[in-house]
From TrEMBL:
InterPro entries membership: PP2A_PR55, WD40/YVTN_repeat-like_dom_sf, WD40_repeat_dom_sf
GO terms of molecular function: protein phosphatase regulator activity
Keyword annotations from UniProtKB, A to Z: Repeat, WD repeat
Full protein name: 2ABD phosphatase
Source species of the chain: Nicator chloris
Recorded superkingdom: Eukaryota
Example of a GO cellular component annotation carried by this entry: protein phosphatase type 2A complex
Length: 235
């Protein structure tokens, strides 16, 4: 074991490791995330057993927004270093956060993946969906990030422009030369023709696993027992 946070008495277990990854350029450095929403960066040059971290990343919680579900939805399900090694990205239940490795106090970017589900947390707790573990990934240049959602939706976020897009992986979209059309979830008011309401989302259809080709604009998303590959349109 490189890290061992197991308590002497398992009844005292309050935190578990949820994800871990080595730095892309420094093989002695790695990070691991926890169910309490924290990230620890460790350096194996200082010790072979990294029970003591070098850096500790945690976003301060807003006391006014605390609820019964706060600890569950803050649990980190995935952590990924950027390809250039300067940043890391974490995924919790409702959002994706980008952290600068030189700034431990708070993320430098936060992207809301499906904030419209906040009002549905009670139902999502009852059907166990609130415990789903979504992954996230960078594109080759670190300029765009991607993660999954429900209804076979997946989201992309362009970091410089803050432009976000919702796309759907379906049998229709997987036909040869099919063009993916952006989807939108209606959160309030009158629903437009191409929109889908929060109440009609299918929570059994979920994209937990995503991957981006390191050099090409090709993405892979896993939806239940289907794997979809999409490529950027070439004129």
């Amino acid at each position: 074991d490189i890290v061992d946070i197991k308590p002497a008495n398992m009844e005292e277990l309050t935190e578990v490791i949820t994800a871990a990854e080595f730095h892309p350029h420094h093989c002695n450095t790695f990070v691991y995330s926890s169910s309490k929403g924290t990230i620890r960066l460790c350096d194996m040059r200082s010790s072979a057993l990294c029970d003591h971290h070098t850096k500790f990343f945690e976003e301060p919680e807003d006391p006014s927004s605390r609820s019964f579900f706060s600890e569950i939805i803050s649990s980190i399900s995935d952590v990924k270093f950027s390809n250039n090694g300067r940043y890391m990205m974490t995924r919790d239940y409702l959002s994706v956060k980008v952290w600068d490795l030189n700034m431990e106090s708070r993320p430098v970017e936060t992207y809301q993946v499906h904030e419209y589900l906040r009002s549905k947390l009670c139902s999502l707790y009852e059907n166990d969906c609130i415990f789903d573990k979504f992954e996230c990934c960078w594109n080759g240049s670190d300029s765009t990030i991607m993660t999954g959602s429900y209804n076979n939706f997946f989201r992309t976020f362009e970091r410089e422009t803050q432009r976000d897009t919702t796309l759907e992986a379906s049998r229709e979209s997987s036909k040869p030369r099919a063009i993916l059309k952006p989807r939108k979830v209606c959160t309030s008011g009158k629903r437009k023709k191409d929109e889908i309401t929060v109440d009609s989302l299918d929570f059994n259809k979920k994209i937990l696993h995503t991957a981006w080709h390191p050099m090409e604009n090709i993405i892979a998303v896993a939806a239940t027992n289907n794997l979809y590959l999409f490529q950027e349109k070439v004129n």
